[in-house]
Specification:
315 residues, Rossmann fold, single chain, alpha/beta, 2 domains
Length: 315
């Protein structure tokens, strides 16, 4: 009899996975970070997701027999990609699983900024009946640039189109009405919204710097649902304080959690949304389980895996 392939999986997914995995897999379940690290050396297939990253990373280090690691997170910049390349570990991510909720959150934040909704909430908290709307900007007729046109970027595009926003995505090819990577900066001054939805890679670090911010409209709003390090935070704080742009929505910050005395909390027109856009929903978790089950069958059959990450590119 052939030896079974050991899969080390989160106990949180046990009820959703029981009875659905293909023959040939022997399953171990971890309930906390300590147990994950302890059991890691037995794993050939792993699903090590935790919001705290130290123990999953330790588990990956100890999992010397690991052949395939699955994560429901779309971003993989926190993972040891070069080490996986050397070790021959396959990696699949959660690309697209949470695109809808993230896009909804991005559009929600744009509406909140446009209509001054945070001021309405604060007025209600203070029992203060406003005599007029704090925001009168309409999304209809505005223009939005989307940097990063994967699942999240496309979902944002679909939703904004319903609000009659003119959307211009940036793609590597620059085809079909999109802008190429060398074209978007020259047109920055024509957009009311700049939405960041790209994966984080060494090439994107501090892409949104002082020069980019200076080229934006003075009323434009930056919306980041991508990665914190894409934005030069010091340059953003300076631009907001000087009124060089209209505002910013930051779902990602560096560090996280943001210290209570950090200037981003109080800088004018900055909305910090505390990395809540991509929090898993019940439906996105079930989508992650379904994809994992499909990939288990593919892995056992030696077939290409769905949403496999190119370890050299980082996405």
């Amino acid at each position: 009899m052939d030896a079974l392939t050991v899969a080390l999986l989160p106990a949180l997914a046990k009820s959703a996975l029981t009875g659905r995995l293909p023959a040939g897999i022997d399953t171990l379940w971890w309930e906390d970070g300590e147990q994950l690290v302890e059991l890691a050396p037995q794993a050939e297939i792993g699903w090590f997701d935790m919001f705290e990253k130290a123990r999953p990373l330790k588990a990956m280090e100890r999992a010397t027999g690991l052949k395939w690691l699955n994560t429901a997170f779309a971003g993989v910049d926190w993972l040891p990609l070069e080490d996986f390349q050397v070790r021959g570990v396959k990696l699949t991510n959660g690309s697209g699983l949470n695109a809808g909720p993230v896009a909804e959150f991005a559009v929600l934040s744009m509406l909140a900024v446009a209509r001054g909704y945070t001021e309405i909430v604060r007025a209600q908290d203070a029992h203060d009946w406003l005599s007029g709307p704090p925001g009168t900007v309409e999304l209809a007729g505005s223009r939005a640039l989307i940097l990063g046109y994967g699942e999240i970027g496309r979902a944002v595009h679909r939703m904004l189109a319903g609000f009659e926003v003119e959307v211009v995505p940036v793609t590597r090819s620059g085809r079909d009405g999109t802008l190429g990577p060398d074209e978007w900066q020259a047109q920055l001054g024509t957009f009311d919204w700049v939405v960041l939805a790209m994966p984080g890679t060494p090439d994107t670090a501090k892409m949104i710097d002082a020069d980019v911010l200076a080229a934006m409209k003075t009323c434009a709003v930056l919306v980041n649902v991508a990665r914190a390090d894409i934005v030069d935070q010091d340059a953003l704080v300076a631009a907001l304080r000087a009124g060089k742009i209209g505002g910013a929505v930051l779902d990602l910050t560096d560090p996280e959690p943001l210290p209570a005395d950090h200037p981003l909390w109080d800088v004018p027109n900055c909305h910090v949304t505390m990395h809540l856009a991509g929090m898993p929903t019940q439906r996105s978790f079930l989508r992650a389980v379904d994809r994992f089950v499909l990939n288990c069958s593919k892995f056992m059959a030696g077939e290409a895996l769905e949403s496999e990450v190119d370890l050299a590119l980082g996405y």
